[in-house]
């Protein structure tokens, strides 16, 4: 078997178009170089405020400490929170392996691959001059000192000089590649601190979008009063107030270049470059004053149709409800295996569950000692290995196990399976030899699986408690029958649930039934029935506009007066006061 290098890709939200394109470049280049790739991608970027569940998504990155990795490509820009960046920096530094950043700032420990694109930025300025005839053009570049910001500003100077157009220090400003700086810049224009330009070219789409929104609040229309362009193509038209004229930066090439540089550092050899994608023209939107006439290519149109079809299948399916209704781990996993087709382009899917979780849902199964993880599901598109398996392994062997294919390099996307701090294991998704990333629907599917695993564990916990109670009851068969009848009473309290009816259903005497029911459930049959009826009444009062008389009828009360007295005795307020409080709380 060939001893292949294994590269870890650290990112988040890899379903986003530009991140997916970047990963596509990494995967295509790794295939050519014969290297395995493991994408460790959180399903969010930990933007504030961070919920407990989201915070524990970062536990996935503990796998970075495994010695099986030979190097890492680290997308710092994918993460919004400083704490997670600090944690990732520490983990990657301690690994002792070479780390390649993607279009980031200079780092004291890691190398950085920067996309140099002054010619592309110049094309946007040329468009404003030659197509629209603008002369008074401003530039809002990125963070001062970064290579991208300085390159784009230098390109602005060069184009303005070449056309003999005037500019001074007030014509350009440094931004932040985010939304704060463009809002401040808009205020300078609105207040008159900076004279109104004919056009502003921004160093990325996010700043252009924020600038347009801030100007719009002051009544300055884009493009009628001022033209604006973005750059990088990261923002979809649906996310922007005005469709942006921009230049879609080649993240595919950035991913490919980052891999090649990392490969050279790891091996001391150069890696043959993959074929670059065709030249990309400016993407015309409305923000410059043009009317977009661009049509998608036939290939991109087919791809969008395919993704749309899978998205429709996914959201029209009842996969969440199906997963939540499974009673055993085997049934749950079998259902997942039969529904993974909802993910577009998938090739292989695996689930690894931790031994601690398996012990709670399969306490009767004996497993080997010193194995803290178990592969429980292995399915592929061809059905070659479809089915439920149980292959114990150590967590430290997980990456090596996934990348053991002797025929060709492997690429897997790993996701943590957890609910808050309750860690269940990992899911692994592969697209075979396709250089693509998953869609948002896969993230939703993982959330569904997390919910189903958590609920299954809770079901077993309740069964265990029930089993413990059953050992202390004098008549287990009667206990099960009474518990079933009690659930029916709770669901349909309006029916006739007299002691006589329950005696007939359980075949026991009246006195014995009343005594044993209170021993088992802590309340008499009559007390329970009142609780169930009043609970239904409160629910109807809260969720409907039905009259109180009608609610009394639906809850099994023949007399409205009796219902009103019983409600006040138990709740301490009248029915009308209770409903009034509900209405006031909603206002």
Could you describe the 3D structure shown?
The protein has 587 residues and is of the alpha/beta class. Helix content is 46%, strand content 13%. Helix 5 links the parallel strand 6 and strand 7. The N and C termini lie far apart (69 Å).
Topology:
Blueprint: E1 6-12, H1 17-33, E2 36-42, H2 52-55, E3 71-74, H3 82-95, E4 99-102, E5 111-113, H4 118-131, E6 137-141, H5 147-162, E7 172-174, H6 180-191, E8 199-202, H7 205-217, E9 227-229, H8 251-267, H9 298-316, H10 319-324, H11 329-339, E10 348-354, H12 355-361, E11 373-380, E12 388-393, H13 398-402, E13 411-419, E14 422-430, H14 440-470, H15 476-491, H16 499-506, H17 510-521, H18 525-543, H19 548-554, H20 560-571, H21 575-586
Parallel strand pairs: 1-2, 1-3, 2-13, 3-4, 4-5, 6-7, 6-8, 8-9
Antiparallel strand pairs: 10-11, 10-14, 11-12, 13-14
Helix pairs in contact: 1-8, 4-5, 6-7
Q: Brief description of this entry?
A:
The protein is α/β, with parallel strands linked by helices and 587 residues long. It is built from 21 helices and 14 strands.
Highlighted features:
single chain; alpha/beta; Rossmann fold; Beta-Lactamase; 14 strands; 13% strand
Number of separate domains: 4
CATH class of the largest domain reads Alpha Beta
C-alpha-based Rg, rounded: 31 Å
Helix percent band: 40-55%
Q: What's the number of extended β-strand segments?
A: 14
In what range is the share of β-strand residues? 5-15%
Structural class: alpha/beta
Which CATH architecture of the largest domain is right? 2-Layer Sandwich
Number of helices: 21
Q: Average pLDDT, to the nearest integer?
A: 87
Instruction: Point out poorly predicted stretches.
Output: none
- State the strand order across the main sheet: 5-4-3-1-2-13-14-10-11-12
Q: Major β-sheet, in short?
A: 10 strands, mixed
What is the CATH fold-level name of the largest domain? Answer: Beta-Lactamase
What is the 3D shape? globular
């Amino acid at each position: 078997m060939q001893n292949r290098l294994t590269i870890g890709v650290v990112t988040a939200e890899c379903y986003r178009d530009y991140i997916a394109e970047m990963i596509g470049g990494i995967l295509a280049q790794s295939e050519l170089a014969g290297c395995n790739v493991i994408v460790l991608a959180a399903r969010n970027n930990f933007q504030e405020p961070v919920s407990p569940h989201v915070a524990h998504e970062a536990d996935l990155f503990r796998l970075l400490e495994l010695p099986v990795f030979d190097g890492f490509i680290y997308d710092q820009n994918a993460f919004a929170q400083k704490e997670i960046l600090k944690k990732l920096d520490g983990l990657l530094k301690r690994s002792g392996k070479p780390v390649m950043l993607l279009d980031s700032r200079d780092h004291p420990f890691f190398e950085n691959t920067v996309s140099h694109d002054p010619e592309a930025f110049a094309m946007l300025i040329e468009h404003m001059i030659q197509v629209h005839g603008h002369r008074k053009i401003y530039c809002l570049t990125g963070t001062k000192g970064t290579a991208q910001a300085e390159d784009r500003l230098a390109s602005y100077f060069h184009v303005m000089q070449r056309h003999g157009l005037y500019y001074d220090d007030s014509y350009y400003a440094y931004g932040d590649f985010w939304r704060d700086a463009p809002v401040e810049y808009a205020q300078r224009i609105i207040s008159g601190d900076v004279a109104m330009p004919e056009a502003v070219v921004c160093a990325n789409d996010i700043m252009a979008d924020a600038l347009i929104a801030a100007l719009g609040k002051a009544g300055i229309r884009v493009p009628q009063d001022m033209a604006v362009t973005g750059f990088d193509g990261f923002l979809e038209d649906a996310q922007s107030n005005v469709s942006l004229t921009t230049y879609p930066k080649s993240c595919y090439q950035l991913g490919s270049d980052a891999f090649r540089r990392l490969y050279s550092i790891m091996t001391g050899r150069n890696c043959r470059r993959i074929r670059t994608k065709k030249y990309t023209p400016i993407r015309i939107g409305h923000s410059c004053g043009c009317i977009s006439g661009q049509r998608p290519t036939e290939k991109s149109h087919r791809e969008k149709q395919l993704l749309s079809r899978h998205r429709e299948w996914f959201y029209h399916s009842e996969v969440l409800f199906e997963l939540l209704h499974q009673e055993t781990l085997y049934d749950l996993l079998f259902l997942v295996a039969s529904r993974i087709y909802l993910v577009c382009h998938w090739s292989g899917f695996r689930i690894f569950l931790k031994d601690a979780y398996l012990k709670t849902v399969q306490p009767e199964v004996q497993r080997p000692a010193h194995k803290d993880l178990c592969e429980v599901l292995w399915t592929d598109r061809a059905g070659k290995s479809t089915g439920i398996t149980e292959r114990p392994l150590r967590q430290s062997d997980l990456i090596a196990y996934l990348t053991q294919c002797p025929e060709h390099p492997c690429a897997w996307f790993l996701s943590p399976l957890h609910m808050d701090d309750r860690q269940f294991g990992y899911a692994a998704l592969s697209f075979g030899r396709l250089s693509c990333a998953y869609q948002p629907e896969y993230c939703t599917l993982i959330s569904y699986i997390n919910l189903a695993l958590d609920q299954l564990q809770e079901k077993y916990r309740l069964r265990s408690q029930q089993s413990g109670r059953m050992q202390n009851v004098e008549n287990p068969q009667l206990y099960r029958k009474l518990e079933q009848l009690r659930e029916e009473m709770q669901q349909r309290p309006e029916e006739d649930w007299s002691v006589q009816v329950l005696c007939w259903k359980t075949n026991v005497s009246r006195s014995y039934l009343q005594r044993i029911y209170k021993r088992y459930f802590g309340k008499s049959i009559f007390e329970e029935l009142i609780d169930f009826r009043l609970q239904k009444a409160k629910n109807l009062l809260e969720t409907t506009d039905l009259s109180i008389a009608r609610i009394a009828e639906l809850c099994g009360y023949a007399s409205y007066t009796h219902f009103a007295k019983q409600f006040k005795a138990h709740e301490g307020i009248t029915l009308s006061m209770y409903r009034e409080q509900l209405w006031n709380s909603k206002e």
